[in-house]
Specification:
Elements: H1 46-59, E1 88-96, H2 101-104, E2 109-114, H3 127-130, E3 136-138, H4 140-152, E4 158-161, H5 167-179, E5 183-186, H6 188-191, E6 198-201, H7 204-209, E7 216-219, H8 226-232, E8 238-239, H9 248-255, H10 260-275, E9 279-280, E10 286-295, H11 304-315, E11 320-324, H12 345-357, E12 362-366, E13 383-386, E14 388-392
Parallel strand pairs: 2-4, 4-7, 7-8, 8-10, 10-11, 11-12, 12-14
Antiparallel strand pairs: 1-2, 1-3, 5-6, 9-10, 13-14
Helix pairs in contact: 1-5, 4-5
Length: about 400
C-alpha cells in the first residue's frame, strides 16, 4: 500500500508540506459519508477498491503482474523488463481527439500515457517513451490530480495508455481521484508549499453527480497479466487492447514476447467476460465494452486472418474492430528487411477483405495511410457508413498498387 493511502480517510489541507506533489504523504481527500458506491459505470465499493490497491502493491514485492513474471521486488526499486520500480512514470496527459469516434467523441478522451512498456517492439513508434522510459515520476496523488484535471476539462473518459506494467500505481491514483467528490486541484501556492488553500473545479458531469464519474478506458498492447486483469475487474469500463500477432514465434522475434499469442487470447477473453460488447449512450459515446485494435504490419506479420478468426469464433462476431493502417518503419525497423517499409495498398486491402469472411461487421476501417511524404495525417474529411463499419477518410497520398513507400 503506498504511503498516501495508509490510515488516511480525511486529512486536513494544513498538513500539506512538500512542494513536489509526488512526495506529499498527507493531503486532503473528501469524506466518504453517504458515498457507499462510487466507481464509474461498473460500480465497485470504496472498501473493495482500497483492498485491491493493497493486494496490488503487495504483488509488487515479487512482481508477476504481467506475463513477464520477472519476480523482482519493485517496492525496493528493483526492476524487470519494464524498467519501472514502485513509482510510475507518465510521459504525457492531455485531451486526445484522435481515438476511435466513440472514445474521443466531441470533447476528447483524457489520455494518461505511461512511460516504459512490457513489450519490446522493434518497430515501436513511441520508442523514446516505451524503450527509453521518457517521462516524469508520478505518485498516486499526481495520477489522481491528472484524472481530476482531465475530468474538469470535460473529457468523455479517462484513457489509460500502456498501463499493463503499472496496474497498482493506476489503482492507487484512481482510488484517490474517486474519493474526491469534487475535482481538487491544488493552486500554485500549495504546490510551492506557501499555502494550504484549495481550488475546486467541477465538470458538467460532476455537477450532476457530485463526484467524478467517467468511464475508464484500458488502452493496452494486449500483453496483460491475468492477475492484473482481475484487479481491474469492476474498475475498467472499456477495454481497448491491440492484438499485434497471431504467432508466438513472430512475437518473440519482433517484441521479445515468446508467449504473446497464448497470453493475448486469454487476456481478451477475460476482458470480454468483464465488460461484454461495446455499449454506447444516446450520443454515440462509449460507456462500456470491448474494442479490439489490430495494427496491420508488412509481410502479413500480424497474422490478421488468424486474429479475426479468433475474434469471430471465440469472442463474438459482433465485436468492434479497429484496424490501424499507420505503420511506418520506426526505431529498429529499418534494420529488418521485412518491416523496413510501409504497407502496400494490396496488403491493406487484403486484410480488410478478411473482415467479411469472418462475419465481423462492427468497427472502423481507416483510409489507407501509406503516404509518400507524411507519416500521420488524421484530418477527417468525413465519416461514411459502410455497413456497420465506418471508413475514416484522411488527407493522404495512396501508395501505388502492390508497392510500399520507401522508408
Amino acid at each position: 500500500m503506498p504511503e498516501e493511502l495508509k490510515n488516511n480517510n480525511v486529512i486536513r489541507p494544513a498538513r500539506l508540506q512538500a512542494s513536489n506533489a509526488s512526495k506529499v504523504k498527507n493531503f486532503p481527500i473528501a469524506s466518504l459519508a453517504g458515498l457507499a458506491r462510487f466507481a464509474g459505470y461498473m460500480l465497485i465499493s470504496s472498501d473493495q477498491l482500497r483492498e485491491r490497491v493493497g493486494l496490488a502493491y503487495t504483488a509488487l514485492r515479487s512482481c508477476k503482474l504481467c506475463p513477464r513474471n520477472c519476480g523482482v521486488d519493485r517496492i525496493q526499486g528493483k526492476t524487470g523488463v519494464c524498467h519501472t520500480g514502485k513509482t510510475a512514470k507518465v510521459a504525457s496527459h492531455n485531451v486526445h481527439a484522435g481515438e476511435e469516434p466513440p472514445i474521443s467523441g466531441t470533447r476528447g478522451s483524457g489520455t494518461i500515457f505511461f512511460g516504459s512498456c512490457n513489450l519490446k517492439c522493434k518497430f515501436c513508434q513511441n520508442y523514446p517513451i516505451s524503450w527509453l522510459g521518457n517521462g516524469s515520476d508520478a505518485g498516486p496523488l499526481v495520477l489522481a490530480e491528472m484524472m481530476l484535471s482531465l475530468s474538469a476539462r470535460g473529457c468523455h473518459n479517462i484513457n489509460i495508455v500502456t498501463g499493463s506494467h503499472v496496474v497498482p500505481q493506476f489503482l492507487a491514483g484512481f482510488y484517490l481521484a474517486k474519493l474526491n467528490r469534487r475535482s481538487v486541484l491544488y493552486s500554485p501556492a500549495v504546490r510551492q508549499g506557501r499555502s494550504s488553500s484549495i481550488v475546486f473545479e467541477r465538470s458538467e458531469a460532476e455537477s450532476r453527480s457530485g463526484h467524478m464519474n467517467l468511464p475508464i478506458v484500458w488502452n493496452s498492447n494486449g500483453y496483460d497479466g491475468m492477475e492484473s486483469l482481475r484487479l481491474l475487474d469492476g474498475v475498467v469500463d472499456i477495454y481497448m487492447p491491440d492484438i499485434k500477432y497471431s504467432s508466438n514465434d513472430i512475437a518473440e522475434h519482433y517484441s521479445s514476447a515468446a508467449n504473446y499469442w497464448d497470453v493475448v487470447r486469454l487476456s481478451v477473453k477475460e476482458m470480454y467476460r468483464q465488460v461484454g460488447g461495446l455499449k454506447l449512450d444516446e450520443n454515440g459515446i462509449a460507456k462500456q465494452g470491448l474494442i479490439i485494435r489490430h495494427l496491420i504490419l508488412p509481410g502479413k506479420l500480424s497474422g490478421t486472418e488468424e486474429v479475426l478468426k479468433f475474434i469471430s469464433e471465440e469472442i463474438s462476431p459482433k465485436t468492434h474492430i479497429s484496424f490501424m493502417s499507420q505503420y511506418f518503419p520506426a526505431h529498429k525497423a529499418a534494420e529488418d528487411p521485412v518491416i523496413n517499409r510501409r504497407l502496400t495498398t494490396e496488403e491493406y486491402e487484403t486484410a480488410c477483405s478478411l473482415l467479411e469472411r469472418y462475419g465481423l461487421e462492427n468497427g472502423w476501417i481507416p483510409a489507407f495511410a501509406g503516404m509518400t511524404y507524411l507519416f500521420f495525417v488524421f484530418t477527417f474529411l468525413s465519416i461514411i457508413p459502410s455497413g456497420h463499419f465506418y471508413k475514416l477518410l484522411t488527407l493522404s497520398l495512396r501508395a501505388p498498387k502492390g508497392r510500399g513507400n520507401p522508408p
